[in-house]
Amino acid sequence: MMARLATLACLVLLTACYTVQWPWTETELTTSGLTDEPVRITTAPAEAWYVIEPAQVSFYASDIPLDALATGEKVSGQVVSIQMMWEPKPGYTPIEPTTTNVSIRLVVFAEGQVGVYGGGGFAWPRGTPESGSMGLLLTGSNLSLIARTDGFVDLLSPAQMLGTLRAVQNDARALSVRRAVSQTVTDALGQVRWVRGGQDAATMLAAHAR
């Protein structure tokens, strides 16, 4: 009886925190505005990559060809960067409304205009980093615009990103995406705004405020 009550309590807690997704559900990775008439952006990259770093596992997904980013073309699309800072372990790590184990950046390109969104959230890993292929299921998050070019129109803030991202380990490819996006965003905004490994959304926000 006590076991059943404990299970029910856990279900109630999870429902209160993450009402859209469950750890065993897989859906497309989607960013949705939290307004009365929300805008939705679905991330459907042909490929996604991750790199194991000293304090995190960094995921990168883009629906824009890397060559187009690297050459500075006026592109339209998005790049998602997610850093998993720690792996949740049921019964050992907290799962509550304030829990955050991933840092998220979303860069939206619109014909030369750029908007950078940042925030945090909670994600369940699918597989292990050492396996060479794994996924992340985002069950809760918050995002807001933290940098943009003058002509970029923000249709998302505030927003949330939910769904599943699957990636393969490819250090060179992941770091190439990070460098290309970093340079493209820096060129568009006139100063460094992209967050590199180890920095979080709060760091970017502080830089933006200066």
Structure at a glance:
The protein has 210 residues and is α+β, with helices and mostly antiparallel strands. It has helices at residues 2-17, 66-70, 171-189, 201-209, and strands at 29-33, 40-43, 47-53, 56-62, 76-84, 102-110, 113-126, 133-148, 159-169.
Topology overview:
Layout: H1 2-17, E1 29-33, E2 40-43, E3 47-53, E4 56-62, H2 66-70, E5 76-84, E6 102-110, E7 113-126, E8 133-148, E9 159-169, H3 171-189, H4 201-209
Give structural notes:
The chain is of the alpha+beta class. The chain has one domain. Helix content is 23%, strand content 39%. It has 4 helices and 9 strands; from the N terminus they run αββββαβββββαα. The protein has helices at 2-17, 66-70, 171-189, 201-209; strands spanning 29-33, 40-43, 47-53, 56-62, 76-84, 102-110, 113-126, 133-148, 159-169. It has a 7-stranded mixed barrel with strand order 3-4-5-6-7-8-9. Strand 7 (113-126) and strand 8 (133-148) form a beta hairpin. The protein starts with a helix and ends with a helix. 37% of the residues are buried. Residues 1-22 and 196-210 have low confidence and may be disordered.
